[in-house]
């Protein structure tokens, strides 16, 4: 850049202002991209109590919104007055990633297992952990405002396996 002393400072200020404008305009979109996007917003339809009564027993799930980055869930299977299984679940956003983190009594040494979101749409959430024994995939699909299907799937003992849990919202 050739700048003269007499006119150069005026040109320099104009160039600097233009340069600052270009830097600021270019920087603003970069700032917007780094802003934490709420991954849980599309999943708010999950909040509430869900249930499926069958001849084998009753499956229930209850979801609560803790804050913008965490939902908690509780799932249990009842047969008569007996609780056959229970599970606590955290649906949580860490940085820009969403995780489904279940803890099942008498499984995995009582430790939580983390499944990362692989797809999120307004009506479906898919979480996967290929290293887990079974399931490797957990899917929640909203069918209507008051019905959903939860599905666990993957490979168990070398064979593909899938279990679906249709549920209705409990009023």
What are the salient characteristics of this protein?
10-stranded antiparallel β-barrel; 18% helix; 171 residues; single chain
Structure description:
Strands 1-2-3-4-5-6-7-8-9-10 form a 10-stranded antiparallel barrel. It is globular, with a radius of gyration of 25 Å. The protein has one helix at 5-34, and strands at 48-54, 57-67, 70-79, 82-94, 97-104, 115-121, 124-128, 137-144, 147-156, 159-169. The chain has 1 helix and 10 strands. The termini are far apart. A hairpin with a 2-residue loop joins strand 3 and strand 4. Helix content is 18%, strand content 53%. With 171 residues, it is an alpha+beta fold.
Concise description?
By secondary structure, this protein is an alpha+beta fold.
Strands, total number: 10
Cα radius of gyration in angstroms: 25 Å
What structural class do the secondary elements suggest?
alpha+beta
Shape: globular
Total helix count?
1
Main pleated sheet: 10 strands, antiparallel, barrel
Name the helicity range.
10-25%
List the strand order in the largest sheet. 1-2-3-4-5-6-7-8-9-10
What is the residue-averaged pLDDT? 84
Q: Stretches where pLDDT falls below 50 for ≥5 residues?
A: 11-35
SSE ordering: HEEEEEEEEEE
Strand residue content:
over 45%
Distance between the termini: 72 Å
């Amino acid at each position: 850049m050739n700048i003269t002393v007499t006119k150069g400072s005026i040109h320099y200020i104009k160039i600097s202002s233009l340069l600052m404008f270009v830097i600021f305009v270019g920087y603003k979109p970069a700032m917007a991209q780094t802003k934490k996007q709420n991954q849980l917003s599309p999943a708010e339809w999950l909040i509430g109590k869900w249930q499926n009564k069958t001849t084998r027993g009753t499956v229930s799930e209850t979801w609560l919104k803790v804050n913008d980055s965490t939902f908690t869930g509780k799932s249990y299977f009842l047969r008569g007055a007996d609780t056959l299984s229970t599970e606590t679940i955290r649906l949580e956003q860490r940085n820009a990633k969403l995780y489904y983190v279940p803890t099942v009594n008498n499984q995995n040494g009582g430790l939580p297992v983390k499944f990362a979101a692989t797809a999120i749409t307004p009506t479906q959430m898919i979480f996967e952990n290929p290293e887990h024994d079974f399931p490797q995939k957990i899917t929640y699909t909203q069918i209507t405002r008051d019905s959903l299907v939860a599905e666990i799937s993957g490979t168990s003992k070398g064979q593909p396996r899938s279990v679906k849990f249709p549920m209705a919202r409990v009023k």
